[in-house]
Amino acid sequence: MELTPRLQDILNMVKNKGEINVKDLALELKVSPKTAKGYVKELERLGFITVDEREVIKLKAEGENAIEKLEKIVQIHESEINALKKEIDDLKEEVLKLKRKSKA
After folding, report:
1. Which residue of 13, 27, 51, 73 lies most exposed, with the fewest beta carbons within 10 A?
2. Domain span at residue 19?
């Protein structure tokens, strides 16, 4: 299951804080409460979090195994992001080379 970087960020926030209100999450993400609720609903649907009647978000209580799974997913995505950053840097360098050749 692939999580978007935004969903990973939200899970990291919840993990680091222990819990967070949907409105506070929206403020931290600099998005509307409606957008934040959409992210939360997706994470709840995927089984990563729970949301109570006060809109307080917590990691789903499945013990250490859930946290380990989450950390593994985050690590996978971080390595993919780093690989993409390197690819972007390589492409930028190639563009600069082409620009230099065209000026010569």
Report:
1. 27
2. 5-103
C-alpha separations of 90 from 2, 37, 78, 79, 97 in Å: 25, 38, 18, 17, 11
The C-alpha atoms of residue 4 and residue 94 are separated, in whole angstroms, by 28
User: What's the whole-model pTM score?
Assistant: 0.59
Cβ burial, residue 42 (10 Å; 0-12/13-18/19+): middle
**Number of structural domains the chain divides into:** 1
What is the tens place of the pLDDT at every residue in 71-85?
777 777 788 888 899
Contact 4, 39 (CB under 8 A): no
Phi and psi, residue 76, nearest 5°: -60, -45
CATH number at residue 9: 1.10.10.10
Give the pair of three-digit tokens for residue 89.
């840097």
Flag residues of the chain having pLDDT under 70. 1, 61-67
